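TASK: fixed-backbone design
INPUT:
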């Protein structure tokens, strides 16, 4: 995966090279830890199921799904908040991942809206991103209290 920096998007990891779990395994690992360590946030965090490959005569299904709100570029982890946490999760070894259509545009747009937008390479890095988001939220809260 070619790493193109997107303004306003933070990057976590990406240096590791070698064998690593699939993105689906990394995703499950992150959500498991989130639900265990931050159950309130784990209860509202979502993974949009937008990456399913619909083939053959399913054109109408794709059209209907998009009409119902499917966004193929939506990031893998979204946690509502102020700001919202939006994380595109890739494999730990970035050379084993690739951008899907719309993902970079989605991150660019979400960053412009003031969300915490990031790309994390592996579940451990996604957790670091999550902790950075929590820290940022605490800092914002302190600033608002001082006003």
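OUTPUT:
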């Amino acid at each position: 995966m070619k790493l193109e920096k997107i303004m306003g998007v933070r990057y976590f990891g990406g240096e590791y090279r070698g064998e690593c779990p699939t993105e689906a395994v990394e995703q499950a690992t992150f959500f498991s830890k989130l639900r265990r360590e931050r159950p309130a946030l784990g209860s509202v965090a979502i993974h949009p199921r937008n990456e399913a490959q619909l083939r053959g005569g399913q054109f109408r299904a794709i059209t209907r799904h998009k009409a119902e709100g499917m966004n193929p570029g939506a990031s893998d982890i979204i946690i509502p908040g102020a700001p919202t946490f939006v994380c595109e999760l890739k494999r730990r070894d970035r050379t084993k991942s690739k951008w899907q259509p719309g993902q970079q545009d989605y991150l660019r747009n979400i960053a412009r809206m003031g969300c915490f937008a990031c790309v994390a390479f592996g579940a451990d890095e996604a957790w670091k991103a999550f902790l950075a988001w929590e820290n940022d939220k605490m800092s914002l809260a302190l600033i608002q209290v001082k006003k």
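COMMENT: The helical segments are 23-37, 39-42, 59-67, 103-112, 123-146.
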